[in-house]
Amino acid sequence: MAAKKSKKYWVGFDLGGTKMLANIFDSSFELSGRARKKTQSKDGTQSGVERIISVLGEALQDAGIQKDQLSGIGLGIPGPLDPDSGVVIDTPNLGWHNLRLREPIEAAFGCPVFIINDVDAGVFGEYRFGAGQGMRCTVGIFPGTGVGGGCVYEGQILTGKNRSCFEIGHIPVVPDGPLCGCGQRGCLETVASRLAISASAAAAVYRGEAPNLQAIAGTDLSKIRSGALSEAIRAGDAVIEEIVRNGARWLGIGVTTIINLLAPDIIVLGGGLVEAMPDIYLEEVSRVANSRVMAPLRNVTKIVVSKLGDDAVAKGAAAWAEARLNGRTQQATS
Amino acid sequence: MAAKKSKKYWVGFDLGGTKMLANIFDSSFELSGRARKKTQSKDGTQSGVERIISVLGEALQDAGIQKDQLSGIGLGIPGPLDPDSGVVIDTPNLGWHNLRLREPIEAAFGCPVFIINDVDAGVFGEYRFGAGQGMRCTVGIFPGTGVGGGCVYEGQILTGKNRSCFEIGHIPVVPDGPLCGCGQRGCLETVASRLAISASAAAAVYRGEAPNLQAIAGTDLSKIRSGALSEAIRAGDAVIEEIVRNGARWLGIGVTTIINLLAPDIIVLGGGLVEAMPDIYLEEVSRVANSRVMAPLRNVTKIVVSKLGDDAVAKGAAAWAEARLNGRTQQATS
């Protein structure tokens, strides 16, 4: 391909538990190239960094550009991290700890690199390209295996002391409630995550109450994914619908806490469960939140379903790199 | 008194349910004069605005300065308000609604006027003059009749959509819990406010379990204030101590939610209950929060007791007026 020499490309990278994804964007954030690889976290951190560099290189090839045409790279990484030092503190599903990720990537590509929590990247994507455009305060909540969240306030991603924050999955909602993966009890994700919902669904299958889910997935939790739940509901498993609605109502309690605390302009719901069953989520979360928040906050915050697809994290990470380099993150947008 | 002609004085005002307070500060934020009046909210809003103007005038007299020496006025007002438009949306204990407060005060004193939620003013005071100095993220939590809170993030008071926010007293913590004054059930303030604690204490007195509180206040809720609780505990009413500790532990659950969401540098606890029983509050809130937050967030956030006294709201409101006028609110401080 013809070489394009101006330094105008941005790279967004999404590190998932099973796959890693690199996208190249031009200055208008149109996709110019992409690459994917399996994560293979079991091979350790050194191998992991090499695979990241390799998939970034493949995406450059796919776009037909050279590394000296890159303006910057944004890496969306799961788990807590320190965006200022570029250190990944922990990656829950990969087993990588205290990983200095920025330096080797900067050395390999010769451009500035920013690391950002993957959920924050997704929320920044919503703020730049999705339902949160131009909003002063955008919150994103993504129920999945856990329940992730993030907040973009006046163009900045809210961060905690030396780390990413907004761990909405672990706010306490049920005193002495179910045991959580974090070691606590009654965290939001013990009642609202896909894992919690799938566990209840598996029990319903076991009890013989959900014949369609029985046929689709049986009692194996690892097979009861969002698509299977949605399919079973469409096929008529009323108990599965009630289990999902119950999880969505608990998510509404988490949303209530966020509205009472931050009264954001918009809350964007996303992730696999919401993508598979948007109507159930929008209905239950809106209903609970608007009946449960303080009266003066009723209907103040818009609640919507994300329309950004699988590329949201990579695109948000790339846009964050641009925002950091262009100094746009301190600026209110409305 | 000798007139001081340079335009260098700031006024802070604190509108309480029973009294209103105006303080004049010089450019170093040393107190130059003050005045107080009863609020007398029953006389209506027009009379209320006149009383505010009158007490501000008396404070000027006390400081021996003229209104043309004022740089700006900050008004700390209870309840939700819109800081941008200067409209007080509601004042729960005063019965004033949709009050345009900025214009008449600006007209009377000929300087810029800013309105700010009183709790936010107190937290901004902590950030400028108290335990939060130089902190990137300072949260203040004040259990009183309700439970108020606020957050100063990179020098800005976090605000919601067209209004003040951080209504921590109304985050849901007990599913189907006690009825709250807001009409909901199980809000934090139904279990952690002074009102909740005093109601439990009154029941203990009624049951004959708290002879010292019986002697101090009897079963009359309106007499069981923070000082009475503290005195009864010192005199040996073990059940009252356990009731207060239980309330403080619930406050620790609210603090857990804040740390999991924002991981602030510091949380300052204040208000009557905390001032009267600082050791109990510091001990229980720290213990619950540090055992209940996600493991990587343990001991990340400093938890302290406020050292600013009764003037915190007025001083914080005055400092906020200065920050707004000097454009310092968008600037990170560390």
Condensed summary:
2 copies of one chain form a homodimer. By secondary structure, the first copy, chain A, is an alpha/beta fold.
List the helices and strands and how they pair.
The structure is a homodimer of 334-residue chains.
Chain A: E1 9-15, E2 19-25, E3 31-38, H1 45-63, E4 70-77, E5 81-82, E6 87-91, E7 96-100, H2 102-109, E8 113-117, H3 118-129, E9 137-143, E10 147-153, E11 156-157, E12 159-160, E13 163-164, H4 189-192, H5 194-206, H6 211-216, H7 226-234, H8 238-262, E14 266-269, H9 272-276, H10 278-292, E15 302-305, H11 312-325
The strand order across the widest sheet of chain A is 3-2-1-4-8
CATH fourth-tier homologous superfamily of the largest domain in chain A: ATPase, nucleotide binding domain
**Helical proportion of chain A, percent range:** 25-40%
Number of strands of chain A: 15
For the record, the count of structural domains of chain A works out to 2
Overall mean pLDDT of chain A:
92
Q: What name does CATH use for the topology of the largest domain in chain A?
A: Nucleotidyltransferase, domain 5
Subunit arrangement of the protein? homodimer
CATH architecture of the largest domain in chain A: 2-Layer Sandwich
Helical stretch tally of chain A: 11
CATH class descriptor name of the largest domain in chain A: Alpha Beta
What does the main sheet of chain A amount to? 5 strands, mixed
Radius of gyration of chain A: 20 Å
Indicate the structural class of chain A. alpha/beta
